[in-house]
């Protein structure tokens, strides 16, 4: 189960219709501009600086957000990415979800030396352990253990850390 805080909406309309009751318009507008600059810049240090400085994300050393990565526009401060991690092309990292009668907010924690494949979506309240690999086009809707290889829509564990190590060892013997 993902770790999210749930907020019921009692006003008229669905939770997204009441968006600016949960987050200010000026914050969303500022974050959108910063994210758009980050999505298109080819300079990793600049992206990391933008995300740390203006979005208040925790971003580790030598972490690389590929072109077109879209961090959460409403609650980017709830995203933490470890050291030497790669977030693949056109991936989305969400820290919120707006439903009909409620909205949910959850921290996203991505460990050190994690590889997220292109076009993946990470949902709020998910933790991806150190050294994990998530294949391209995955919907990460659950925690991924340290060192695991996971993929799919929805994501599933393909190999545990131990199975990956055994496969590497067998490949070296051949």
Automatic annotation (TrEMBL):
The record's top EC class is: transferase
Which EC number(s) does the record attach to this protein? 2.3.1.-
Q: Output one GO MF annotation.
A: acyltransferase activity
Write out the coiled-coil annotation as residue ranges.
Answer: none
Instruction: Tell me the Pfam families matching this sequence.
Output: Hexapep
Q: Which residues cross the membrane?
A: 49-70
Ordered alphabetically, the record's keywords are: Acyltransferase, Membrane, Transferase, Transmembrane, Transmembrane helix
The answer to whether UniProt assigns keyword Acyltransferase to this entry is yes
Name of this chain's protein:
Acyltransferase
């Amino acid at each position: 189960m993902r770790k999210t805080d749930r907020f019921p909406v009692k006003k008229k309309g669905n939770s997204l219709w009441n968006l600016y009751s949960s987050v200010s318009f000026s914050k969303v507008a500022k974050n959108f501009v910063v994210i758009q600059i980050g999505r298109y810049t080819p300079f990793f240090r600049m992206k990391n600086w933008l995300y740390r400085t203006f979005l208040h994300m925790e971003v580790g050393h030598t972490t690389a957000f590929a072109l077109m990565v879209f961090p959460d526009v409403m609650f980017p401060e709830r995203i933490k990415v470890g050291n030497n991690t790669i977030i693949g092309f056109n991936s989305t990292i969400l820290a919120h979800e707006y439903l009909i009668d409620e909205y949910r907010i959850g921290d996203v924690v991505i460990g050190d030396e994690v590889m997220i494949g292109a076009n993946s979506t990470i949902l709020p309240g998910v933790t991806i352990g150190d050294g994990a690999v998530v294949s391209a086009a995955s919907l990460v809707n659950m925690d991924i253990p340290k060192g695991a290889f996971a993929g799919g829509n929805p994501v599933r564990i393909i190999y545990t850390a131990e199975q990956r190590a055994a496969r590497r060892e067998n490949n070296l013997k051949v």
